[in-house]
Amino acid sequence: MLTRRHFISTSSALFSTALPTIAAAQEAAQAVAETAEVVVATPPPPPPPRKPVSNRAMWNTWDARVTPAEYDPFTSNPWGFHPRFLPQVVEANDGLTPGDIHVDAVARYLYHIRDDGTAMRYGVAIAKGNLYEPGTYTIRRKTKWPTWRPTDAMIEREPNAYEKFADGMDGGPNNPLGSRALYLFVGNRDTYLRIHGTTSPRSIGGRASSGCVRMVMAHIIGLYDQVATGSTAHLYAPEAFATAQS
Prior knowledge:
Number of domains: 1
Shape: elongated
Strand order of the largest sheet: 10-8-7-6-11-2-3-4-1-12
Number of helices: 6
CATH topology: L,D-transpeptidase catalytic domain-like
CATH class: Mainly Beta
Helix content: 10-25%
Distance between the termini: 136 Å
Oligomer: single chain
Structural class: alpha+beta
Number of strands: 12
Strand content: 25-35%
CATH superfamily: L,D-transpeptidase catalytic domain-like
Largest sheet: 10 strands, mixed
């Protein structure tokens, strides 16, 4: 007959070998937990900004949108600037190379020299203050309805105006380069200076840009096909003489 004392003694014998095994397992698990490396997931890098584009299928539509109804380049002036800034055919000065462009910063005229000794003259706006950069440049590229990104210098100079466009802007009627752009280079270096259309045609005749030469969008559409890549653009200092006689 088992007495209570005998049962307790027997039970102790039954469990005495299992308890150390459980304790050892717990210690091993704790050791593994303490030595395990904590793996932190690294978030993927953000996708690169979308490259601005110009929708070629819209070019003709946009051309029509910025060209006045019944447009006559010599008389149409819905923009309301002084009539002297409308396109005119004038006599070119002697010795000028056909195909070249000359910008008179005093009178705010751009002249495109033609083969017959005449020049097509357009009104322009030039850069504000000391941002205008006179010099001799090569037109190495030209683009219809170009995309645009402000230069780093523009963003630094006027962050409130330009920082939001740091990833660029699609081509179109609201793009600051407008309907066409001629890209000015010195050798193989892009100067980031342009002759381009403008969304602010009433600025024609003044100083308004951050370095570029501005034209009315409809006017530069007419000029664009007449200008060959490789042509020279002469931007004269404000005190220089005019390059043609009206």
